[in-house]
């Protein structure tokens, strides 16, 4: 049993740090966990969205007569008859909106992207609504659109307003241009990724329950119930008392549930207008009519001395955004931050295209930028004739090279060493095309991953009742990450309870304030908040225990007792204890309640940067003749501070790694630029890996003590698994084949193609 | 999805009557394709005739001429795992197992598989033009997203492919489709069952609207161990073929006596070139001979940008498939690693 060093009083860890099953696992596998589209209400009406066909222009006519004539149709909402909502576009800005004017569904006749919702049919059942939706006739006046980033690179601009919460590209260091010119060894290349859509298993959906008197309860697929709540209150002019959002379970989201999606607006609009409960569920096709991981044109130029020390780093990105918002994510920063180099420049520009605004998708920016940077580092290693791991160690930095700040911790060196050892990297023949088995070429590649370790202001409540049960609560979400479970573990250890006596409540706007679950900050933030609230309960409970008549721990202070086994016992003599029940009886209370807020330490933030890191090692086997690439072995060594639950943590990394394999080999939203529309909008043609594509994945958590990243030592895990994976695979493909593929995904055509050979 | 009535006829004759009296009717059996298409508003039948309970179409029987007769309602799973099919027509079993997923194969029928419609993105998206879905509206695939499209037998009106794996094997095996209509029964050889798009891309097959598929008849088996079904796709399962090759060889030692080669994923129908197959007669099996055959099969192949790689990929796939067949080492559909 370890003692946690971060708080003044010791915490005896029975559950924290140990593998534990998901507390919500049984609910999920038995179907008892309710998702947004599974909540119901008496007299529920069903909405079906009519999606637009053109990318840009105007609706000249919407004929809803045939739809309205279908028995069972309640109403067809269009821009012509929608109820009034807030007129200021600012009212539509949610917690994580980028700068700009958010898309307003059914606002007017203008079409700004293909697939835009143009009508909502509400009917007595889903089938009627769907049928009637097919009868809505929309006539358009199309205007010339542009959806191809590559065609408008000349119009790139630096976004005038930075997106809140996103670290902008670092200030230039030294003179990267001159240093590049003077470098004896150089690489410079362009890299592209494909647009990807999140496609969580659960489609976006909202069920609005009409409570009467203008009050509604909303079940939304959202990564933060309070973000939906404030969106609704601002857009529809309601108060927090009128709107409660309850979203206890989210069937995956990967960022698509950070911002309220258009079905929330449509469902609430219809419910308020019809004064009845309404559910709107999107189809899989419509999952391609919202935010996406943006494509971009990236250029990376690296200069080095023959001793493999970097002399110059330059990373430039031009990425697409919508015509109405300036979406920004941290893409190029990593290239400067990671490696010791006196001359470094990173720039990020945008071009406007006629699509929906891109959206944060798992580790937004990092796998994109590090695919380019870590591919370039690999290219440089061959030019220098140095092992790729050695190149990274040669340029290893102990500070944040983007701003010179110290790091709260960085065990990346250990991650390289432990990962390489587990993988057997030392046995690698460095020569491309040198490793073969039968018909297959074997390639070993590696790359570095990084993600910001963040903490966000988050509140939590703890309530201990006389029956010895504890409830911990915060308005955060669990999108499949394991939040319920780790909050339960933290609460259980704080008060010395078995996990069965602790209940975590989240996903409800009426609970203590929390930001959206995202950015890998939830474990650190909500975890700390729960710990703080439980600490306040501990102190109160301890007071009662000590003040009890003839208390066996009367002379002890808090640091001298352990909360374990539902008792408060002297550490020096565990036979002297008070049970929780007795302590509460002594205090004359049947509940102890505390609410606390976890706040990031401003002083720490001023002095330190904090990141999670990973070293990814990959084996691919390539049938070169037929262009087949299989990722047969992968080791991901992750340094991410304290691991609260090694079991759910491993699942997070496995999921991230599979996401990365998918990015490297499979995922691609294919735009038809003539139509301005993504065409493969279903899961038959938008490919993610199947079981047959996934082989051995070995996840290692590298020991990392960090007392500054967050008070509970946690750095977060949701994103780091995907970062670096695609680059490592591309590097392995080069090692196998001698072919450098700089455009994802690495599909058969690119492997057998003759272009892009290094 | 539109509203529709549904009928459950008790006999083939009754089923035929149902569609002759309802011109906008569609037959449904497993429903694995039609239901999808109805949800996407690509098919909008006002009357659906459910064949799934018709008696007598769900069996696998000897033809009496050494072949097998596979009833139209036999599921893809039942056919693939039938001992007689596995033993005598392993190429067909293999192709069936290369397709879709176990869940889909359990529901999909042999007759329905013949009538699978293309996976062209534009065909599936009712908001875009498509000559196959709505004749005369145009074909955006030609200069649009056409990674999965045809390189052989295309027309200016349509470059869609037929997506079935099963049909590719049936073409190589020279199966015959038995159908019934108002005028009685007739037989359609596989080579004539599917059409090229020409100027009528809306028509996938030469089956008449009022005809029902009764069975697929396989001729006497003859290819022994020298066969393979090689399917190349963007992931190892649950993906349609970019290119697939069904190859069957009759060997005499190192020499080829007879060859059958059919390609999937490259045309509006399973693609066979009998003259190319003839080229192998009496030749020693080997890369050189196979390459010449591949050249001949792909003569006139045309790419449209996104799918141009298929020409080279098909060439290599033909060589690999013939090599696998000649060696008697057919592609495994369980360990999906390509041999």
Model description:
Chain B: Pfam families: CO_deh_flav_C (PF03450), FAD_binding_5 (PF00941). The complex is a heterodimer of chains A (758) and B (339). With 758 residues, chain A is an alpha+beta fold. Among the domains of chain A are: 25-30 and 455-599, Aldehyde oxidase/xanthine dehydrogenase, molybdopterin binding domain (Aldehyde Oxidoreductase, domain 4); 381-454 and 602-758, Aldehyde Oxidoreductase, domain 4, CATH 3.30.365.10. Helices cover 24% and strands 24% of the residues of chain A. In chain A, strand 22 and strand 23 (577-579) form a beta hairpin. The longest helix of chain A is centred in the last third of the chain and has 26 residues, at 522-547. Chain A is globular, with a radius of gyration of 27 Å. The two termini of chain A are 53 Å apart. Chain B has 339 residues and is an alpha+beta fold. Among the domains of chain B are: 1-54, Uridine Diphospho-n-acetylenolpyruvylglucosamine Reductase, domain 2 (2-Layer Sandwich), CATH 3.30.43; 227-327, 2-Layer Sandwich (Enolase-like, domain 1). Chain B contains 13 helices and 12 strands. Chain B has a 5-stranded antiparallel β-sheet with strand order 4-5-8-6-7. A 4-stranded antiparallel β-sheet of chain B has the order 9-10-11-12, with helices on both faces. A 3-stranded parallel β-sheet of chain B has the order 1-3-2, covered by helices on one side. Chain B is globular. The interface between A and B is large, with 40 and 36 residues.
